[in-house]
Design a protein that fits this description.
- By secondary structure, the chain is α/β, with parallel strands linked by helices.
- The protein contains seven helices and ten strands.
- Strands 1-2-3-4-5-10 form a six-stranded parallel sheet, with no helix packed on it.
- The chain is elongated.
- It starts with 5 loop residues before the first helix and ends in a 13-residue tail after the last helix.
Length: 266
């Protein structure tokens, strides 16, 4: 959709929740202009989806200017990169107020990202990253023994959950949960240390303490659950919003009649 462009974005009234999806007319520069405008001050949730944000500096400036944002979603095919010639200072991306981050993009295995939630995102409580590179983000979250949902073992899509290329790994939520569970189970196979109860030279009991994935004391939950229980997608679609009613006509979905008790709208 290219009818909605940077000019239209600047003309939006003050909003609290803003989802920009598949908008070819919206550029990273338009996003930054919006973030710097007075209309962005009330935005508490921003979701740029498939907008092709090429450089990580755009994400950094967005979060810097959106002072009241609590939730941020980034979904696109390619992971943002550092622009050639840019001076890189740590942290590259940070936010004092974000509580929820969803990030799903390809991550190059040759250059894994570093992530320090304590200093960079002190108020972060939920992290959803289906394309987590080798569990680097899972490792900074609180420990959990189970990543799979009870229904996952019955899913027909289990074998299609993971698609791999030479330099990238793209995961669905189901595939991400399976990968996270595999990392948990692999870590549990390793004995990190033993506790031996001994009295007068006689060993009474030996306890094995196995490995784990996560950070003790972390306040961040590694969440790979769908937003809509009936759909394993990362975020709600328009069909989820209208309740999946197949009898709803498209012309009615824009008039409000689909939510009316009868044709009179009362």
């Amino acid at each position: 959709m290219d009818d909605f462009d940077d000019i239209a974005l600047q003309a939006l009234p003050p909003l609290q929740f803003l989802r920009l999806e598949d908008l070819e007319g919206v550029t990273p520069w338009g996003l930054l202009d919006f973030a710097r405008s007075i209309h962005s001050r009330g935005v508490c949730s921003l979701s740029p989806i498939n907008l092709i944000i090429t450089y990580i500096s755009v994400i950094s400036k967005l979060l810097l200017n959106l002072k009241n944002s609590r939730r941020f979603r980034l979904v696109q095919d390619h992971s943002p990169m550092v622009e050639a010639g840019d001076l890189v200072f740590q942290p590259i991306v940070a936010s004092q107020q974000l509580e929820f981050i969803h990030s799903n993009s390809r991550i190059c295995k040759r250059k894994p990202c570093k992530f320090n939630p304590c200093g960079w995102f002190p108020n972060l409580r939920v992290l959803r990253a289906p394309s987590d590179h080798d569990g680097l983000l899972q490792a900074v979250c609180r420990l959990r023994a189970q990543a799979l949902l009870p229904s996952d073992k019955y899913s027909e899509a289990q074998m299609a959950g993971i698609a791999q290329g030479q330099d990238t790994t793209v995961l669905t939520l189901l595939g991400a949960r399976k990968a996270a569970q595999q990392r948990i189970e692999e870590a549990q196979k390793t004995v990190h240390f033993k506790l031996i109860v001994e009295e007068e030279g006689v060993v009474h009991q030996t306890y094995d303490f196995h490995g784990f994935i996560g950070t003790i004391g972390s306040k961040i939950t590694y969440n790979l659950e769908p937003e809509v229980l009936s759909n394993d997608a990362s975020f709600a679609s328009f069909g989820d919003v209208i309740g999946g009613n197949k009898e709803v006509a498209l012309k009615d979905s824009c008039t409000g009649l689909w939510n009316a008790s009868h044709h009179g709208g009362k």
